[in-house]
Amino acid sequence: MGPRARPGAPIEGATPVVVRLPRPRETTAVKSAVETLDATTVKLTVEVSHDELKPSIDHAYEHVGSQVAIPGFRKGKVPPRILDQRVGRATIIEHAVNDGLPTFYRQAITEANLRPLGQPEIEVTAVPALTEADGGLSFTAQVEVRPELDLPDLAGLTVTVDDVTVAEEDVDARLDALRERFGSLVGSTARQPTVTTSSSTCAR
After folding, report:
1. Is 68 within 8 Å of 86 (Cβ atoms)?
2. For residue range 60-88, what is the model confidence (pLDDT) as tens digits?
3. In the chain, how many H helices and how many E strands?
4. Nearest Cα to 91, choosing from 52, 65, 124?
5. Residue 109 to residue 143: CA distance in whole angstroms
């Protein structure tokens, strides 16, 4: 037998395997304002800068580029400028907005310390990124939230319980009412007595 290779040592003649791990998505704080519509409904106005939207745009270019076949380029290796010409920048930005919108909404909710009770109604109000290279995104989100309740100090509350006197007649009346409501008639299995009559012949 030949010499054993140490664990973790490279094997002579073997082809090295390169494993590419996905890059972590960067998260940054978004600019948002909260408008209280009523006790349980708020409206968020969120502005996403280009730097905050850029990771979603880069991901959109990678995803769309891996799905289309353009002569002269391998899938996933198509430059962004060529993708803008072939599929349109609107397609890229739409993909980026759909990809990043849930994250931007969750960030705004967290920063505002809100506790939503349901799904929001989101409306995209402006997408400067469609026409501007350094543009971002603006949207509003209306959602129902858990109301804020101001509870008094329970330690200072005094509770008074009145004495209740129950008369015996009241108990009997209540029992009679329960009997009438839940009582039922039960047939008797006892044999009925037999009555025998004797007849006589009367002479006339």
Report:
1. yes
2. 999 998 888 888 888 878 888 999 898 89
3. 4, 4
4. 65
5. 10
Domain assignment present for 82: no
CA distance 65 to 98: 17
Domains of the chain: total? 1
For the record, the structure tokens of 41 come out as 């409904």
Q: Is residue 5 domain-resident? A: no
Pairwise CA distance, residues 188 & 183, whole Å: 16
Torsion of CA 124, 125, 131, 134, to 10 degrees: -80
User: Which three-class secondary structure state does DSSP give residue 141?
Assistant: strand
117: CATH? 3.30.70.1050
Look at residue 184 and tell me whether its pLDDT is greater than 80: no
CA distance 84 to 133: 12
Say whether 116 sits in a helix, a strand or coil: strand
Question: How many Cβ atoms sit within 10 Å of the Cβ of residue 60?
Answer: 23
CA neighbor of 67 nearest in space, from 59, 33, 113: 59
Instruction: Write out the residue range of the structural domain in which residue 140 sits.
Output: 31-57+89-144
Interatomic CA distance for residues 29 and 58, integer angstroms: 18
Separation CA 146–CA 141 (nearest Å): 16
Q: What is the pTM of this model?
A: 0.58
Q: What angle do CA 164, 166, 168 make, to 5 degrees?
A: 170
